[in-house]
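Slide 14.
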Amino acid sequence: MAAVGKAGPYALVLGASSGFGGATALELARHGMDIFGVHLDRRGTMPVVGALLAEIDKAGRKATYFNVNAADAENRAEVVKTIADRLNKEGAALRVVLHSLAFGTLKPFISEEDPKERLSQAQMEMTLDVMANSLVYWAQGLYAAGLLGEGSRIYAMTSAGSTRVVPTYGAVSAAKAALESHVRQLAMELAPNGVTVNAIRAGVTDTPALRRIPVHDRLMEHAAAGNPSGRMTTPEDIARAIATLATDATGWMTGNVIGIDGGEDIASW
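Slide 15: predicted structure.
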């Protein structure tokens, strides 16, 4: 099934419970969109999800959240079918799809002291599958279900790590580089359908994903001190930018890596 029609007031956020995904889900709701969210949370973090859903409800929009592994093919098919069952009846496509999956292995490629501490093949493949390749699989499924159409906007969260090195970040860095490549390819293939695909390069941001990086404190200190705008990036900065970009006026903007970082990436420090 090909794209069925023009994008409606609906968004799908992958990684929708916290960080960039959570902030963007709420901001898009405040801009009049109903939210479909995919997240993976255990009992300890579910109160955060509940608070977010309450805020979306307060904004007057409907939130449908799925607590499943977004990288699992069966889960993906079930989520896509649920969304399609609702939107196909209206002849509507998704306005926004945000890929914000941040789950990967943080280990060095080489470990002189203990070979068991170096990155394994399975860990490398898992990291690239979740953080990069899953974008392609979601786009394929959504397109086949008629959920991508004229005016649909796909965004994928990347970072400066796609071109830079940080200790233990190798697999994630590779995933970000692959993600940007996937964005370019999808942009070319979906352009005839009026669908745009762009990567969002956020500045260093205090999120749960960042805090899993062993040197996160140094990264945060460096970013805060060197950003010419005088502070670090926040999830809300990214959310506001995505909500602003997700309009018909950006239909000619596709295949890009868009920096949203207050000037962090250009600063010489």
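Speaker note: Residues 183 and 197 are 6 Å apart (CA to CA).
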